[in-house]
Amino acid sequence: MRITGNMLCEYDACRVDIEKFETQWPDGCEVTEENCIIAFTELNFSPSWAARNLLSYAARVEYLRLKNIVWEEHGVLDKAYWTNLAIAFFKSTKLMEQKEESKP
């Protein structure tokens, strides 16, 4: 999955987040575990907004399932929580890729 500044504009992301995104990734970026960690821990992007706007329904359900597990394991909003939430988001995007690959 690839994300661009234009995509964020289309989904009505706030101007500050679009500017931060385009500074970090001027040409857009692939959704990787590393990029998710940067987005959610260093740039303070909202994983909830990203899940709501960028994930398919099935991927969003998986993200929410993983988010609950992360909360049960950490229970505190520290860097480890946000890092694991970023990884949960990344893993959820894999459902979208699998669906695309299975199309004839």
Features:
104 residues, 4% strand
Write the layout of secondary structure elements.
Blueprint: E1 2-3, H1 5-10, H2 15-24, E2 29-30, H3 33-42, H4 47-54, H5 57-74, H6 79-101
Antiparallel strand pairs: 1-2
Helix pairs in contact: 3-6, 5-6
Main pleated-sheet profile: 2 strands, antiparallel
- Strand tally: 2
Helix content: over 70%
| Spatial shape | globular
General description of the model:
This protein has 104 residues and is mostly helical. It has 6 helices and 2 strands. It has one domain. The chain is 72% helix and 4% strand. A two-stranded antiparallel sheet has the order 1-2. Helix 3 runs antiparallel to helix 6. It is globular.
Short description:
It is built from 6 helices and 2 strands; from the N terminus they run E-H-H-E-H-H-H-H. A two-stranded antiparallel sheet has the order 1-2.
